[in-house]
Each structure stands twice: as C-alpha cells, then as structure tokens.
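TEACHING EXERCISE
Course module: macromolecular assemblies
Task: Read the component lines below, then compare them to the predicted structure of the full complex.
Student: A.B.
Group: 4
Components provided:
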Amino acid sequence: GENVEQHPSTLSVQEGDSAVIKCTYSDSASNYFPWYKQELGKRPQLIIDIRSNVGEKKDQRIAVTLNKTAKHFSLHITETQPEDSAVYFCAALYSGGSNYKLTFGKGTLLTVNP
Amino acid sequence: NAGVTQTPKFQVLKTGQSMTLQCAQDMNHNSMYWYRQDPGMGLRLIYYSASEGTTDKGEVPNGYNVSRLNKREFSLRLESAAPSQTSVYFCASSGWASGSSYNEQFFGPGTRLTVL
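Instructor-supplied answer key:
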C-alpha cells in the first residue's frame, strides 16, 4: 500500500517568513495530492491540492509543487501570519477502481511567531 | 446544508463497554470514511465505504465494525472498548459535489472518545 512521509514534524517561523513542508510518497500510481490544515480542536480542511498532470499550483500565499519522478511534493506558505499556525497534513490518493482512499502523512505543527 | 455531521461529540466509556459512533452527510457523496487521530500519528484510516452496500478495511480495523446504513449514513461500532481506542474519531465523505473536485474529502467535526 501507499506510504507517505512528511517532514518536518514541527516548524517555527517568524511572521512574514516563508514556510516549507515536504512529503514523499511510495506508490507511483498515486495521482492526487491534497493538503489539509487543522486548527486546534477543529476538523481538517482542504487548503490546496494538485494532480499528477500538474507540476505547480498557487492560491494566493499558498503553493504546492509536485515532482513525480522523485515522488515528492511540497507545500509553500509565503508571508506567514499568526493565523497560519496549525497542523498541516499532506496526503496521497490511491485509487483502485471506484475506491478513493487517502493516505496521510503524520502532520507538521507550524507555529508562526508574531 | 450541514455537510458531514457526527454524534456524539464527546464520550467516556469503561473498558469492555460498547458504543456506536454515528456519521451522516447531506452532499450525496458515494464514499465515506472513518479515521482515528492520535498525537504524532496523523490520520489513520479504520474503515471506508466506496459506495452504498460496500465496506472495506483500512489501516487499523481491529476492534471496530462498520455499517453503511444507506447512502447518507456510515456508523462505527466498538464492541468491547479498550483504553488503546482512546482517540479522536473523524468521519469523512467524498464524491461529486457542487464546486468541489471528486476526490476532496470533507470531514465531520470529530468525536473525542476516552476509554477508562
């Protein structure tokens, strides 16, 4: 089955700096890579996703890059703000027939210091 | 449009007790999922249901059973709770929905379960 590794497990940055979180996956058949943000005590919510036919995707201060050859993808947050503080999860999709089963990384706790 | 709802929000059980966690979605999604979340372990899939009438084991199914009651509802049952099942449980659903991609999973608010 799919295995997703996520690094670092914790990340502390100063407000205004950039933050980068990296993930690797094992199954070359995976073709969908979402990122979720989970604030303390809340449910995970999708913030950005990328499909395997795209190398980069941006949404305001957030961007995701994908390197299919190396089987890794990264989340980039620019101009970080205190409200970006949360746990971020990457995931990879293994699709078997009509089944869509996500495998998640273990998460990165991002702290943005004012 | 409530999205994905879960009941209860909190539950305390004694070892050996049983209970059922309820999940419902109103987005007409085909697929539904149960995860558990433990500190430092991320989200681990317990069971999932690709479509009404089917269920499959995920990464950590031992000690749990599920029922896909209909397209809207997917329940998780603990027959004999153990302290190792203390966790936060999230239900999720995915499928075609207005304004979303097929693969996006929407999560419920979670159930915080403590087994003493």
